[in-house]
Amino acid sequence: MNGYTLDVFLRGRLKLYQPKEGPRFGVEALLLTDFLTLRPKDRVIELGTGTGIALLLLALKVPVMKFFGLELQKELVEIARKNVEINGFDDRIEIVEGDLRKIEETFSPGSFTVVLGNPPYIPLEAGRIPSDRVRALAYTEEGCTLEEFLKASRYLLSTGGRLYLIYRPFRLPDLIFHMRRLKLEPKEIRFVHSKASEDAEFVLVKGVRDGSPSLRVASPLVLYNEDGSYSDELKRIYMGEV
Fold this sequence. Notes:
Layout: E1 4-9, E2 14-19, H1 27-35, E3 44-47, H2 53-61, E4 67-71, H3 74-86, E5 93-97, E6 112-117, H4 133-139, H5 146-156, E7 157-167, H6 172-181, E8 184-193, E9 200-209, E10 216-217, E11 221-222, H7 232-238
Parallel strand pairs: 3-4, 3-6, 4-5, 6-7, 8-10, 8-11
Antiparallel strand pairs: 1-2, 7-9, 8-9
């Protein structure tokens, strides 16, 4: 496929077509799918599924359960469906083309118990918009704002449903503000550091629709030792222990 690479991960357990330029497999999907907890009767959807990597990881991790992914960009929808097919999950992962800003045209309210995602984090006024269209829509608020992402999440979640996100710490005040305003109560936060001596690079956040106020700040997750080698926790997450 022109413009795409076919890569193999997790000791051959996962094949992935991904664009040469645009959203590619990174640690975020591994961190997010490791952070969330699923229950046997959960109904799960990812907003902005991209190439489908997070759903593929979940399908490997949790047998039987079915997953849905919503994606705006047609080229990513096609590649995500191809990834689902080549990994043999046609009966367990459904990729839906749609705009979360018009979520009511695609799904009924309260259809899911779990929503996960990696919302766009670059504000349009930041002035550093990627020139590549696919990257621009994936990482900036051109395709949807943080508030629109959270409104769609609330719409999709049943009462008590859980929201799991990975985001950038510099936008955490905005994230908490909009979550609380939309009654997606923040229940757990975990900061992710490349090294213990460095500032946090990501933040993992769990919210509950109409949950009661009570926030747990978990111990930091450190990805690399000071010598650059994998930390024990990253080894557990990355070395195929899905």
